[in-house]
Amino acid sequence: MSSEKLQLIPLGGLGEFGMNCLAMRYQDDIIVIDAGLMFPESELLGVDIVVPDITYLVENRDKVRAIVLTHGHEDHIGGLPWILSELNVPVYGTEFTLAYVENKLEEHGLLDDAELIDLVPGRRTTLGAFSILPIRVTHSLVDCVALAIHTPVGVVLHTGDFKVDLTPVDGEGFDLMAFAELGKQGVLALLQDSTNVDRPGYTPSERAVRPRLDEIFSRTKKKLFFSCFSSSIHRIGIALDLAFAHGRKVAMVGRSISESSEIAQDLGYLNVPDGLIVSPGQARDLPPDKVMMLISGTQGEPMSALSRAAVDNHKHARIEPGDTVVLSSRVIPGNEKGIFRMIDHLYRREAKVIYDDGGSGLIHVSGHASQEELRLIINLVKPKYFIPMHGDFRHLRRHIELAEATGIPEKTLLMEDGDVVEMDRDTLRKNGKINAGRVCIDSGSTGDVVEDIVIRDRRHLSEDGIVLPIITINKLSGRVERQPEIVTRGFVAGEADIMEQAREVVARTLDGSSAEEKADYGVIKEKIRTDLKRYIQKNTSRRPLIMPVILEV
Ligand SMILES: [Zn+2]
Ligand SMILES: [Zn+2]
User: Fold this and answer.
1) Radius of gyration of the CA atoms of the chain, in A
2) Closest ligand relative to 18 C-alpha
3) Which of the residues 178, 343, 445, 469 has an alpha carbon 20 to 30 A from that of 489?
4) Pair 71, 98: CB distance under 8 Å
5) 194, 386 Cβ separation under 8 angstroms
6) What is the pLDDT of residues 331-372, one digit of tens each?
7) Is the pTM of this model over 0.90?
8) SS3 of 95, please?
9) Which ligand number lies closest to the CA of residue 366?
10) Which of 254, 232, 31 is nearest to 144 (CA)?
């Protein structure tokens, strides 16, 4: 090992979207920047989340000083429970980021053993050979930072996710001065967010959605359902403001959105007038034009509140003809099918649905910098080396072209997961590879302890086998014909009546589902999978692959 060089070793997030995780090493000190997850593509049946393979960190466990977080999005913190259960090191993050982390670790029973330490923008933290200065940046989430990492070979500036929002909703501006100051002092390497490198111009401010949303609030005569990502605190703030201005009370429906709003409110990121929030039960007794429901599930996730409301199967959120549903979010590639299926159901309820169709005014803006902002930061920072972060290969490639066109960096380098990149004041190059990859996790439906986390690899599949519940549905009537059957391969239930009861579990799930849910195979399969998984795990301690099959007759 070349001992005088700084190494960058990306474990995730380069060449794919999600599970951002970068190790930085100088001699015997390693820090890890971000610890994200990725949601699996639909081909990965039965897998709940995907996290980076951290073998490299585990093999060097005595050198890992800390995990440092740039912000609280899942693609940056979602892998923490998994990583901390393998490698318990201190976690640094800003106040809001750590509040999300606390919630997450609590869910996994890991909070008591975790060491969480506040990062404060403008205040340096020393970790081994590294001295880290967090710098305030703007993004679609609050309390986000870039990290200026002072190392023995020079300063490495990691932007984290950002856009340059000059009119931030929460008044916390992008610290352009700090970037300029670093540029003056000299930056060895800039590591920059590539997500929107395809987009010309500037990304609009978070504030830019307000006029169009205001117009929607003015025109809506009945109930208004407002859905956005639960971490879109700025967006939630704007929606609450508008609800207040238009005389609507707000009910929160869905766990993720209420928890997230509560954290933001506690930490002063949401200003909620007294009496604005009512319980979903109270909202039912109010006139429709006095209610806004803040509801989770913009991506058509089958078990989310909005998906269930869309098929008329939610206790509190009933969508009636003439109601308006606003999806203030983007369609994440890969989720189109689920989202449009949900939108179809909403139209069946005779609701008015407003989603980001590109044609009807801004109801969503991206949180990532477009080309001019990327160029601006390169110009302010004047790095000697440039390395793109956060994107598929084509984003990284195009980002390098963009950086080279500014004429500023002396050298650029395209780094991918598993590369070992070495640098000092005079050189920047790849030197070898480590084992990096994806670990697929089946988190179980109970979400309790980490012992429940199981790696779904082939060995595992061969041990626990496969379970196929077969449901026969009449195409014309939508009714379930005859009792569900369950076929298994390589799965040993143990006691004889387990399979009989499993059949009953499936039958109960079917009974408890509305006709519309049953007609929607995506929804009904997911419900059966969830319920059956819970039952089988509880009663056999096994985790077979469960694949519901629907036969139409
Ligand atoms: Zn982000
Ligand atoms: Zn991200």
Assistant:
1) 25
2) 2
3) 445
4) no
5) no
6) 888 888 889 999 999 999 999 999 988 777 899 999 999 999
7) no
8) helix
9) 1
10) 232
Structure tokens at 459: 């060995």
Residues 6 or more apart in contact with residue 463 via CB below 8 angstroms: none
- Residues with CB under 5 Å of ion ligand 2 are 75, 161
3-state helix/strand/coil string of 384-414: CEEEEECECHHHHHHHHHHHHHCCCCCEECC
Strand spans (E) along 13-124: 21-26, 29-33, 49-52, 64-68, 91-93, 116-118
Q: Show the 3-state SS of 317-366.
A: CCCCCCCEEEECCCCCCCCHHHHHHHHHHHHHCCCEEEECCCCCCCCCCC
List, for residues 298-327, the tens digit of each pLDDT value.
999 888 999 999 999 898 999 999 999 999
| Cβ count within 10 A of residue 411 | 15
163 CA distance to ligand 1 middle (Å): 10
Question: Measured at the alpha carbon of residue 42, what is the angle toward residues 294 and 56, in degrees to the nearest 5?
Answer: 100
Closest listed ligand to the CA of 12 = 2
Tokens of 11: 């474990």
pLDDT tens digits along 62-99: 999 999 999 999 999 999 999 999 999 999 999 999 99
**181-185 average pLDDT score:** 98
The two tokens of residue 395 are 């984003």
Measured on CA atoms in the order 39, 41, 47, 50, is the torsion positive or negative?
negative
